[in-house]
Design goal:
By secondary structure, the protein is mainly α. The chain has helices at residues 2-24, 29-56. The radius of gyration is 13 Å and the shape is elongated.
């Protein structure tokens, strides 16, 4: 249960950080690509954890 919550918090933090820096560095094309990938990884972690919670519970 604790591992699921920790994974969810980490996924949300990575996603929010990626989105924050994606918007902050909107002029730099290379940075936008990197932070877009980081945000996508964070979203994938959150989606995977939510699916795990729905299927197997905490």
């Amino acid at each position: 249960m604790i591992a699921t919550i920790v994974a969810l918090v980490i996924g949300i933090a990575v996603f929010c950080g990626g989105i924050y820096y994606f918007v902050k560095d909107k002029k730099d094309r290379e940075s936008r690509r990197i932070y877009g990938v980081v945000a996508a990884i964070g979203a994938a972690i959150v989606i995977a954890v939510v699916i795990k919670i729905l299927i197997a519970g905490f």
